[in-house]
């Protein structure tokens, strides 16, 4: 083992880079790649190493879509933007936090979530804790807009106010950020939401889309009939 994170191919030109705590995804277009999320601070070497394992240089990265401001998704965005020259894409409601012009709102933990938060995040009394290095958001996106690589933005406020998903119709894949997670390869509502009712509505919105693969922020991607599985999950709410 040389320590390189091997990307896992999910579909033609679509890869998971599993960083353990959180997931990064990559999709290929003609001559460039798009990256979804960047892991915790210090993940840039793992991400660039994984890209090189599938034949891509840093210069190939054209855009980095940030699904929301949380540090396990934006942690390495500044370093990656610097090394690749890629454009950072995010929703305006989270952009001010990503650029560190505004302080992040602390998560509202439910009683059920508190023990999980203590295990995963440590000092829950002092959340959200240290924030990653600021990075400039080059492009603010709204619902329905297309990214450079043809990803369709789906606004899904709830987990954070500026949470976005990305639908890739050509690969029947949806990047869900933390609106949906998975446990034992089954979809679950993502934890630590700013507004639980909105978070549930956001999952309902995504369940109306047609996708075979759900690229979740945490847990294994849901592969095969993913939109139907998400619909079945959210019907139980
Ligand atoms: Zn999150
Ligand atoms: Zn997360």
3D architecture notes:
The protein has 237 residues and is of the alpha/beta class. The protein has a single domain, classed as Ribonuclease Z/Hydroxyacylglutathione hydrolase-like (Metallo-beta-lactamase, Chain A), CATH 3.60.15. The protein is 25% helix and 25% strand. It is built from seven helices and 14 strands. The strands form three sheets. Strands 1-2-3-4-5-6-7 form a seven-stranded mixed sheet. Strands 8-9-10-13-14 form a five-stranded mixed sheet, with no helix packed on it. A two-stranded antiparallel ribbon has the order 11-12. A hairpin with a 4-residue loop joins strand 9 (164-168) and strand 10. Helix 6 runs antiparallel to helix 7. The N and C termini lie far apart (44 Å). The model has no long low-confidence stretch (mean pLDDT 94). Bound molecules: zinc ion (ZN) (2 copies).
